[in-house]
Each structure stands twice: as C-alpha cells, then as structure tokens.
# Entry
Amino acid sequence: MRQEITVDKAIKRGHLIVNIPVFIAIIGCPALALYLEKQNLIPGWGIGIAFLIGFVLAWLIWSFMITKWRIWAFENVKNVHELKKRAIQEKLIWNDGNIFEKTEIRNSEDKSKLKKLEKKFEQEDEFREDYSLPPKMEIHYSKVYNYFELGISILIIGVGIYFFTKGETKQYILGAIMTGIGLYSTIKEFLKALDTKPKIIIDSKGIQTKNVEFKKWSNIESEEVVQEGYGKSAKSYLTYFYDEDEFEKIEIDSLNVTHGELENIIRTYRIRNNKNYR
# Structure
C-alpha cells in the first residue's frame, strides 16, 4: 500500500527538485560567464548573453520539472486542494488559466495522468484534529520577531546619527530622515514588547481578534490563512467572514505562530466545534 505524503513534505520536495535547479541556472550561467570573461576566454558582452541563456534554461527546467512534481505530488498527497493552494502561495505553480501555466512541458503521457488525477479534486479534503492543542489558544506578538525589528530600528538610528554628524547638507538631511524613521519604528516595536494582550484567541466555541469581538463558529465562514505578495514582501493573514457579510483580515507575520501552525489550529478548533454540536 502506497504511503501518503504530507502537504509540507510535498512542498519541500517541490522546492528541492524545481526551485533549486532554477536558481542554480539563473545564477550559475552569469557567474560562469563572468569567470570566463576574467580569464579572457569570452568577450564582455558574453555576460549579457549568459544572463539570457540562464533565464531561458531556468524556464525550461521549471517547465519540465514542475510537471513531474505535479504528477508525483497529486498522486501521493491526499488533500489535493490544500496542496494546490499551498503550491500557488509558495510560487511553485501558477493559478489555473494563467499564461505562464501554459508554458509547462507536458507530453501525452503526462496529460493523461493529470487528467485522471482531476478526479481527486471532486472529493473534499479531510483533516484530523490535533489532540496536542489545548482547549484554548491565545496568540501574541512574537518576542523573537519583535526583538529583531527593535534591533533593526536601533541600527537605523545609529546610522542616521552617523550621517547627521557628518556636517554635509545631503548627509545631514539623510541622517535626520533615518533617525526619524528609526525612532518611530523603535517606539512602535517597544510598545509591542510591552503589549501582553493576545491578538487572536481561538477555541472550540469561536474566534476573537484584536479587531473583532468574539464570534461563534456558527457565525463564521470561509476561515483560512492566506499569503499575499511575492518574495520578501509576502505577508500572511488570517481571514474569515462573520455575521454574513463582515470580513476580518489580520496579519500574522509578527505573531508567535507560523502560517502552517495557524492553519492547523483553526481546523482543529472547527473540528472540535463540529463534534460538540453533532
């Protein structure tokens, strides 16, 4: 009997066999060209050609390997809806119908396998209760994240003061701006460090956030953890509808919970609520 793979493991394998080779192609080709140019083996304009070759090679690698990963992952993971959502959020695959999705390289055998795997999407995902979670979960600001941001803010102040004391007009202005930004950020992070109130409270009865008073699960719909943006600018949010047409969206990156942990938390307490009202 084939052992099912978790969504997390499938995503990690996707990054390993798809994104790492893509990254190596993009960086490796220009790096090799730069080395060859230093050795006077190719002309300087060859570096520009290498960037183009690296991009094309990286796209070909992605187009071929992503299809192989899709087939393997959808065959071995049970919760294919969650897998597809995570893969899109983590930039492994594109949304259905996206022009870039059409560049995936699929032979007739690949197309046949993917067609058969579409049947798995006719079934809803199944989730299990995490018995390790307490009766109530209180989520606060992350101390680690807070201290890191506080350190960066203080560093900005230090750099700002350095420029401020240089005496030249441009550096004086730059130093004043950086010092102001650093002070604002430092005060902001310091107030967070003093804030001990939970930002999200979840239990088998419902959810409460710093923005929205307690709501019962019966009044909550479409709760999920989503990721928006790309790369380092990407942010994760807890979102849900309540009281039919009201909407809550709270950023979680500065909280002491990860994207995956919060997904597990909201599913577990939803399951516990369902059990109580059966």
Remarks:
- The radius of gyration is 25 Å.
- The first strand starts at residue 136 and ends at 139.
- The chain has a mean pLDDT of 90.
